[in-house]
Amino acid sequence: MTALDTFLGWLDVAAIAVFAASGALVASRKQMDAVGFVLMAVLTGFGGGTVRDLLLGRTPVFWLGAPELLAVCAGVAVLVFFTAHLLESRFRALLWADAVGLALYAVVGAEIALLAGANPWAAVLLGVATATFGGILRDVVCNEVPLILRREIYVTAAAAGAATLVVLQGQGVPRDTAVVAGLLVGFLIRAAALLRGWSLPSYRARPGRDYPDGA
Amino acid sequence: MTALDTFLGWLDVAAIAVFAASGALVASRKQMDAVGFVLMAVLTGFGGGTVRDLLLGRTPVFWLGAPELLAVCAGVAVLVFFTAHLLESRFRALLWADAVGLALYAVVGAEIALLAGANPWAAVLLGVATATFGGILRDVVCNEVPLILRREIYVTAAAAGAATLVVLQGQGVPRDTAVVAGLLVGFLIRAAALLRGWSLPSYRARPGRDYPDGA
Amino acid sequence: MTALDTFLGWLDVAAIAVFAASGALVASRKQMDAVGFVLMAVLTGFGGGTVRDLLLGRTPVFWLGAPELLAVCAGVAVLVFFTAHLLESRFRALLWADAVGLALYAVVGAEIALLAGANPWAAVLLGVATATFGGILRDVVCNEVPLILRREIYVTAAAAGAATLVVLQGQGVPRDTAVVAGLLVGFLIRAAALLRGWSLPSYRARPGRDYPDGA
C-alpha cells in the first residue's frame, strides 16, 4: 500500500458514493421504496467497477470482500431517501452526481487498467467503460433514456479524462499529477456541457432522406 | 458430493426451471416463435446463476458443462409454447413462476457465496443479484417494464430470504434447516405482496415539487 | 498459429467490423456525435466476443491486448459517420450488416467453444450468445426494439449455423469446410428471412383470452 494506492482508493470510494447517489435519485424518480433505493445505489455504484474487474479478470470482484463499500452505498441511499425532497431539482442533482462519478471513474478505471498492463488505447477504453456502465445499468434497469443518448457531450468527457491521464503518464508526468489533471479535464468538459449545452457536431440525415422504421 | 450438495443442486435446477417458465411466458406475450421461447427460457433460467458465477470468478460458467440443464430449459419452453393458452392468465403465471424462482435463487446464491468464502453482507447481496438478474435480463431484452419497478415488495423478499439463511447459519443452525427457512421467508413475503399488494412506504416528491424531465 | 487459426482470426475481425458498422448505423438513427458513433461501434463490435470470453473464463478479454481491433471499430465508425447519408436506407444496411455478423459470430463462437472443450450443445448455445449479445447491447443501450423481437427468423439462423458447424465436425468433416458450411447456412437462412419475410409459427393467444397487463 503506497500513498498513491490510498489516493486512488479514496477516489474509487468517492466515485462509488456519487454514482450511488445518482442511482438513488433515479429510484426517487420511479417512486421506489427504501430497499429499491439501496438496490439502485448498489447497482449504479458498483456497476462500472464490476464491469472493469470482469473484463480484466480480477475476480472475485472487489465488493465481495468489502462490506464497508456496501455500507457506503446503503448510507447514501438512505440519505437520499430522506432528503431528496429538499432538492430544487432531483434531475439536476442526478446529472451533477453522474458527472462527478464519470470523471472519477474514467481516470480510476484507466489507471487500474495501466497497472494491470493494458496498452494505452485499451486503458482509455476501459476507463470509458468503467465510467459509463454504472449509469447505463441504472438507466436501462429503470427504463429511463440513457444519459449517453442525450445531446450534450458525455462519452467524450470520459474519454478525454482517461486519455489525459494515459498521455501524461506516458510523458513521464508523476502519477498523482496525471490523475488530478485527468479528473479536471473530464469533469470540466462535462460541466461545460451541462452548463452551456456544449455538444459536438452530430449526425443528421439530409432532409427527405430520413426513413421510417421499416424502410 | 454430500447430501446437502445434492439438495442445493436440486433447488438450483428448480430455480432454473421456474425462471425458464417465466421467460417462456414473456416470449408468449411477445408472440415469439418456438426458438424464441427456448432463447428466453435459457436467458432467464441461466441469467442469475451466470452473473453469480462471473462475479465469484467461477468460470467456465456452470451450464457449459451441463447439457441436461439446457434440456430442462428447452423442455420447459416447449411445454409453455403448447400449453400457455390453457392458462387463465399468463401474466399471473409469470408472476408466480418468478416468485418461486426469486426465493430459490436468493437462498441458493447466498449459500454458494458463503461456501466460496464471501462475508455475510456480500453473501446477501450476491443472493439478491442471483435472484434478480435473470428477471432483469428477461424484461430488458423483451422491452417490458422490469418487475423490480412494480409497486409491490420484490427485492425486499429476496433480501429477506438470503438474510434469513445467512443469519441462521451464523447462529449455528444446520445448513438445510437454514435453507428451508430462507426459502419460506423469501417466498411468503413475495406471495403476500402478490396476493395482498403489500408494499413498503415509497418515496414521493412533495406536491408541487416534482419536476419535468429537463428541469 | 495454424492456417485455420488465421482463417478463424480473419472471420473474427470481419464479424467485429460488420457489427461495428451496425452499431454506428444505430448511432446515426439516434443522431449521435462522432464519439457516440465510435462508442456504439465498439460496444456492438466487441460485445458478443466479450460475453463469450467472460463465459469461458478467458480473461483479460481479447480486445485489451489488441489496439488494432479498436482501430478497426473506430475506422468503421468514422466511415459510417461520413457516408451513411449516401445509403438508400440506413435501416436496411443495418439489418444486413447485422445478418453477416450474426452468421460469422455464431460459427466463430461455436468453434472457439469447441476448442475450449465445451460439449456440442453448449457450443451451439455459446455460438448463439456470441452472435446475439452485441446486437442486444446495441439495441438496449440505444432504446431500440431489439432485432430478436422482430417477427422474421433471427435466433434460429444463428442456431442453425452453429449447429451445422458442430454436427459436421462431429462427423469428421474438416474444420474449414465445416466453418464455411455453417456460415452459409446461418447467413442464407437470415437472408431469406429478410428478403422473403420467412418466419416460424409464432405463439398466439386464442382470441378473447389475451389479457391486459395487470390481469
Summary of the model, kept short:
With 215 residues, chain A is mostly helical. Chain A is built from seven helices and no strands. Chain A starts with a helix and ends in a 19-residue tail after the last helix.
Shape of chain A: globular
Assembly state (oligomeric): homotrimer
Biggest interface, CB < 8 A: A-C, 38 and 35 residues
SSE order of chain A, as H and E?
HHHHHHH
> Which residues of chain A sit in consecutive blocks of at least 5 with pLDDT less than 50?
207-215
Could you say which structural class the secondary elements and strand pairing of chain A correspond to?
A: mainly alpha
E-strand count of chain A: 0
**Beta-strand percent range of chain A:** under 5%
Number of helices of chain A: 7
Distance between the termini of chain A: 59 Å
Helix content of chain A: over 70%
Mean pLDDT of chain A: 87
As for the number of domains of chain A, it is 1
Backbone CA Rg of chain A: 18 Å
The biggest beta sheet of chain A reads: none
Write the layout of secondary structure elements.
Three copies of one chain form a homotrimer.
Chain A: H1 3-29, H2 34-56, H3 67-83, H4 90-115, H5 120-141, H6 155-170, H7 175-196
Helix pairs in contact in A: 1-2, 1-3, 1-4, 1-5, 2-3, 2-5, 4-5, 4-6, 4-7, 5-6, 6-7
Structural summary, described in words:
- 3 copies of one chain form a homotrimer.
- Chain A has 215 residues and is mainly α.
- Chain A has one domain (3-196).
- Helix content of chain A is 71%, strand content 0%.
- The longest helix of chain A is centred in the first third of the chain and has 27 residues, at 3-29.
- Chain A is globular and about 50 Å long.
- The termini of chain A are far apart.
- Mean pLDDT of chain A is 87; it is low at 207-215.
- Chains in contact: A-B, A-C, B-C.
- The A-C interface holds A 54-57, 113, 116, 118-122, 125-126, 128, 132, 136, 140, 145-146, 148-149, 153, 155-156, 159, 199-206, 209, 211, 213-215 and C 27-28, 30-37, 39, 42, 50, 54, 59-61, 63-67, 70-71, 81, 84-85, 89-92, 140-143.
